Amino acid sequence: MSDQFPDMSIAYELFAPAKTNLWLRVHGQREDGYHEIETRMVKLDLQDRIRFQWRDDDHVVLRCSDPSLPRGEDNLVVKAVRALERYTNKVFSISIDLEKNIPSGAGLGGGSSDAAAVLRAINVMGSLFLPEAELAAIGAEIGSDVPFFVYDRTCDCRGRGEIVTPVVEADAPGSLPIFLIKPGFEVSAGWAYHQYASSSEYDGFVYATQSCSWGEMVNDLERPVFEKHTVLGEMKSWLLAQPEVSAALMSGSGSTMLAILKPGIDGSALETRALERYGENSWTFLGQTS
Predict the structure, then answer these.
(1) Is 262 a residue of the active site?
(2) Cβ pair 205, 226 in contact under 8 A
(3) What is the residue-averaged pLDDT of the chain?
């Protein structure tokens, strides 16, 4: 039993939000193999639910509602515990129950958000009192998107994504109504970045920057992803043609497509048409940015 936490009745619960990118610019590959990017990321009201409980047997036990996800040392949630153990030179014996609502391989940052939630939870449960900047630095060791989720608000991110600057409230886009649709396949972020340099704009698809009241919307990773998964490029063009939609973009590295809805619009009719067109196996979500 870890002597740092004798009260095993302590439990904690967090909701880990999804994210999307309002813009994503890729500026080329760095010497370390990563790509230099510039992006603005916002939270969504789509969330995973995570419950934490101390254990008395020096184990980290992850239980997950999605049986397809790994539960061992390869999972970002467990990696987050290990990274915090290395940083603090402490042992955290903990059970983590993860209820997944954010799909994997979707460009919505679900795994990174879960990892950031682990860092934030143990920081509170263990009375570590680590500031956000330190937690973000620990998170950067796990994944490029983790620092954004540590800050838990709209941020501009640079470098490989780990250089995070929170956006002041006056400059943040506020709550935007959104519609998400993901076909029945995943896209690997690593693959998308690797293919970026050798890809070209696939004829017939919309890549141009969209000027919106909350800023420009553009995603440089659409080029390699649409080149392989042409249905996503077609899906973007279709979304832009719908009367409810004011802007559309691939979310992160895909495969989710994001539509910003016009104010006061009920997106349920759009959702119905999208499922009729792209198949009932597609995953959809109506919500908002936060």
Answers:
(1) no
(2) yes
(3) 92
